[in-house]
Design brief:
The complex is a heterodimer of chains A (280) and B (290). By secondary structure, chain A is mainly alpha-helical. Helix content of chain A is 76%, strand content 0%. Chain A has one domain: MetI-like fold (Orthogonal Bundle). Chain A is built from 14 helices and no strands. Classes of the chains: A mainly alpha (280), B mainly alpha (290). Chain B: Pfam families: BPD_transp_1.
Amino acid sequence: MRGLPVLPAVLLLLLFLAGPIAYCAYIAFTDMRLTGASGTHFVGLANFRQAFADPGFRNAVLLTLLFTVLSSIVGQNTLGLALAAVMRRASRPVRTVTGGVVIVAWVLPEIVAAFLLYAFFRREGTLNAILGWLHLPGQNWLFTLPVLAVSLANVWRGTAFSMLVYSAALAEIPQDVAEQAQVDGASAAQRMWHVTLPMIRRSIGTNLMLNTLQTLSVFGLVWAMTRGGPGNRSQTLPLFMYEKAFQDSLIGYGTAVALLLLAVGALFSVLYLRLLRTEV
Amino acid sequence: MTAARREGGTPRRGARVRRPTRHRLAADAALLLVAVGFAVPLAWLVLASVDPEAGLRVRVPSAPTLGNFSAVLTDEITFTPMLNSLILCGGATALTVACAVLAAYPLSRYRSRLNRPFMLTILFSTCLPITAIMIPVYGLFVQVNLIDTVYGTILFLAAAQLPFCVWLMKNFMDGVPMILEEAAWTEGASFPQTLLRVVLPLMGPGVTVVTIFSFVAMWGNFFVPFMLLLSPDKMPASVTIFSFFGSYGTVEYGQLAAFSILYSLPVVLLYALISRRLGGGFALGGAIKG
């Protein structure tokens, strides 16, 4: 009775979150299609077998891995940590301006960010203008290196989160620890490696996990910048599953891919909970 | 900065008092470099929006005008999509915040064996990639006739945001002392009275942060309305802006930039409103760290 107020939330979550997930697990084993009401049949693991034999699927998995490693693990995480660390030494106005610009990039709606970076990377865009000004050859980045372009776009858009997490983590390190290391003659690099990083390892774990989860499910940014192209050279898993389900009308197959993505997400979530539990 | 200042003030280091300054200059230079890198696309947005002949590269307009803004300030381009966004995100935010407040109260105040598993499930679902379930959601919505309905989309947006809101709200509520409520109970106040008159006013800042945070997240959400709505006249700005520049080639970049600014402005302002609260201790990081 006392728990009654929880009911609306539970209902909403069951109907619109748990329901679709269960439905996802069901459709993934059927041959449901968008067109033709010829009925849906249970096909067992056929969709998964089809996926693993499909070069398009393998391509999407590889691109997703590349996109995640480049943009989330290397890009957002490292740049965010570096920014947070350097900010502690910088003067206040510079810190405020840099933080502000990086956060604005994060707060902007996804499609606006995609549009800005699209303009930046296009053949007639700003990047090539800068390169030309430096007497370096330009190229059509969205065509020649689409994965790099969308990864950099994701770094541009997502670094603020890591920066904020790490700023908070670094602020929690007791001042005397850092000072003691300095008095003992440790260089800045040594202090970072032997003192700071071990002390914020929990934040690093949390941040990597959340960044990766967020990056795995990026759709709008890539879709608006390249639509997965040229060909399928920037078609990450969310785009692949969308194409299968709606352009090829293979709802069952697309959902099987979605279920795999969901499973990877769930795995990361469990790891994340574990990580919290060992430390809390 | 405090580190540098203290270091500079230590007498033992007097001989090398210049070092912190040099360090700070290096740090400033590095930060400014990154800031410029991040600012270039933003600069293009601002400059193109006032440039009557905007292209794709950054350039200072020869004759800046507000023509692009007046060109997009029409019902069709700006007002209808923004109103749709407001209805969708406003409705879903109201729903999710209401559910979150109701759920957070017993979770924060009463002891139950179910609390821990419930909160763990909530935390687990905050991490799930919502993108992955959009195909089955689309399928379900077609079967129960919720597809292309505004309230159906509101319900789904609210549900997708709810785990995070419950988590955040419960943490905020844990920080509100119970003494006043106990007084209200002994005076004979009912549950709704206590929640509305005693707890919510104390929770004001927490509720504001959760409300603004979820509104900002939904305002930028492209995939959910893109999948669940079909009629162009129901589309929020996040989708219409895509169709605006989706038709490559004949795009008026200046107008697109102007519309992007109009569309982004509300969330940037709202974020600025709560950033002081989010920054510093960074409630979000705190919430995520459990």
